[in-house]
């Protein structure tokens, strides 16, 4: 069988690194290109032939089902399993096993809920079937692998080791990293210990390798981005709008901007670089917004300049304020004539008075 009908999506993380985006919203539900990020993953899985998806939820679990329901609007059957205590990646996979209908030798796809990728899912499943592997892993190549676990393979693509984040140049034996998508032989999932936290990366995979199991790696170096930081999330959203990252779920044509139907944008405002303007948001005269996300109900007042930033739902950016690489929490109020630079995060509901924060060029 060369097509996987079932998938598990791991969406239980707290998204701590993404705060304040994730204070009120779990990471997979933060909008990217106009829809919750999870929508893109579900749509891509459906396009690859998946019919049944189990969402492994934990943090703010109650928001998923009201939005996606039974999945029929996406052509899917979706079930939800909530962890009472966080179980880690392996524990979460094992925790939903009872909901799977696949036979022991059939393939089940597992996706991490925070990866935006152009992976050819069908090709990964086909490679799994051809190699006869117990588990197949999507691998991608990165220029600097020090922040990732390395996965070297032999000439046939068979995984030879799992190496934790390398600290020295000698430890960097490959540029291949675990890219967060797997195909499991269904029976292998039942070998993961139940009822306790398990890391698939640090426990399950090395354990399988040590026991002589066949783990296969498939390098696919199309688009790949870990959306773990606010800056990465903003970039991922822009890349979806620009068409650099493929998704059947972008609500509109790819291009320089995506303005959702009830938003209002002044005629002379300039939106570029994959900017998204959410429902009910208002963009004032002469505002310039590039590579940014303005969420539902937010207001960008006249003359403001917003670059590579995220403006939370219901937030307000005052006239002539300049934001670069900033993240503004839901409902925050930024007064006029402020200047907020790289990496600054303003908490939900915070208020900055007019001209209270400025960065001069000689600092």
From TrEMBL:
Residue ranges of domain Nucleotidyl transferase in the record: 7-239
CDD domains: NTP_transferase
Domain of life: Bacteria
Pfam families reported in the protein's UniProt record: GMPPB_C, NTP_transferase
Domain Mannose-1-phosphate guanyltransferase C-terminal stretches: 255-356
Cited SUPFAM superfamilies: Nucleotide-diphospho-sugar transferases (SSF53448)
Gene3D superfamilies: Hexapeptide repeat proteins, Spore Coat Polysaccharide Biosynthesis Protein SpsA, Chain A
InterPro entries: GMPPB_C, Mannose-1P_guanyltransferase, NTP_transferase_dom, Nucleotide-diphossugar_trans
Family: Belongs to the transferase hexapeptide repeat family.
Listed name of the protein: Sugar phosphate nucleotidyltransferase
Organism of derivation: Streptomyces mutomycini
